[in-house]
Specification:
The chain is built from seven helices and seven strands, in the order ββαββββαβααααα. It is an alpha/beta fold. It has two domains: 165 residues, Peptidoglycan recognition protein-like (Lysozyme-like, 3-Layer(aba) Sandwich); 58 residues, no CATH class. The protein has a five-stranded mixed sheet with strand order 4-3-6-2-7, sandwiched between helices. It has a two-stranded antiparallel sheet with strand order 1-5. Strand 3 and strand 4 form a beta hairpin. The protein is globular. The N terminus is likely disordered.
Length: 233
Amino acid sequence: MGSASVPHRLAVTLTHPSPNFGERRGGQRPELVVLHYTAMASCAEALERLCDPVAEVSAHYLIDCDGTVLSLVAEEFRAWHAGAGVWGGRGDVNSRSIGIELANPGAQPFSARQMAALEALLRGILSRWSLPPHAVIGHSDMAPDRKADPGPRFDWRRLALAGLSVWPEPAEPGDLAADLVAFGYPDLPMETLLAAFRLRFRPWATGPLDATDRALASDLARRFPVDVITPQA
């Protein structure tokens, strides 16, 4: 990766360096931030796994429930957190994203301190890499047929109100599948896309596709099309 692609001041101190990283392929730079939960009993357990060379997984950051932020991989390098997911019609999300793991077993609320630490971290990342709020996605967004994190207990609307993610407003209903693909979701069966969309934006919703789903998806496609995420180098 050429030096021109790296912000002048990353201001990152690796507190717990992980050996699980590499160069970003093809000179790519971060254009997404992917949020995960650890699905493990404790932050210490998650940290051990993310730094274990045998596990071959990592993230750039791990945030404990008390708000402690642990940096594992420098932002200019490729961490191994996104697997085989797709966003905006493109794979190798690891080479074009920054991964943040939140210590949470998956079924409990995220603490106020953890969310505040995440917000502060996101502000820095989005500023350093000149990224818009809709560059922040969940693991479940890019791999909706395999992943559910950060899950239904995660407060996406709080991030949106802080300008660190997005939240849809009702618009003229359209074709849900087409609109979600325009927003960035993989081109998958409508049922899979509906489940992933509701997990993030309507976790309380049940039953078949309805007009509200279609109206909100239409707004996402209209205001936040994926083709405007990529920052200029």
